[in-house]
Amino acid sequence: MDTTELEVRREDLTSTSATALIGALNAELAERYPEEGSNHFRLDQEEVAEGRGAFLVCYGNGHPVACGAIRRLDAEVAEIKRMFVEPGSRGRGIGTRLLTVLEAEARRLGVTRLVLETGVRQPEALALYARAGFIRVAGFGEYAGSPLSVCLEKEL
Question: Of 28, 54, 63, 134, which cross-links 154 as Cys (Cβ 3.0–4.6 Å)?
């Protein structure tokens, strides 16, 4: 699948596609990080409501293949959450395309800095974010002090 064939749609967190992708993401993270308390899954619908953020689903050939969210933390900063590309669709530039759309949404929200948390056992995610210009920063919020977390930021 070529990324030009992708359709990116804003969706409700409770949609069938969102629920399936988030379930797959949570299962993968639980497998990579089985330690008690090592997963930070919280994202609420109001955090991705119009004007505050967005939850996006990428469709390839009509099937949901990826998701990601952005939530504004304050007037200048937004956080990227729940980035996931189904394993069978990886390596095709879908994550890069989704990240580009999320960055555009951040600009639309008027923020000037993006932050995110990923994990030490996710080399694919770390590589994606490095290619996109994110740099490592100290842990923030619920991730401060988490030895398995890698926090990143990017000035827009």
Answer: 134
Angle separating helix axes 94-109 and 123-131, nearest 10 degrees? 60
Is residue 110 predicted with pLDDT exceeding 90? yes
Place of tokens 């879908």: 94
Sheet containing 6-10, strands listed edge to edge, beginning at the edge strand earlier in sequence: 6-10, 53-60, 63-72, 77-85, 113-119, 149-155, 135-137
What are the boundaries of each domain within the chain?
Answer: 3-110
Q: What is this structure's pTM? A: 0.94
Query: How many residues are present in the chain?
Result: 156
Per DSSP, the three-state class of 122 is coil
2 pLDDT higher than 80: no
State which amino acid sits at residue 154: K
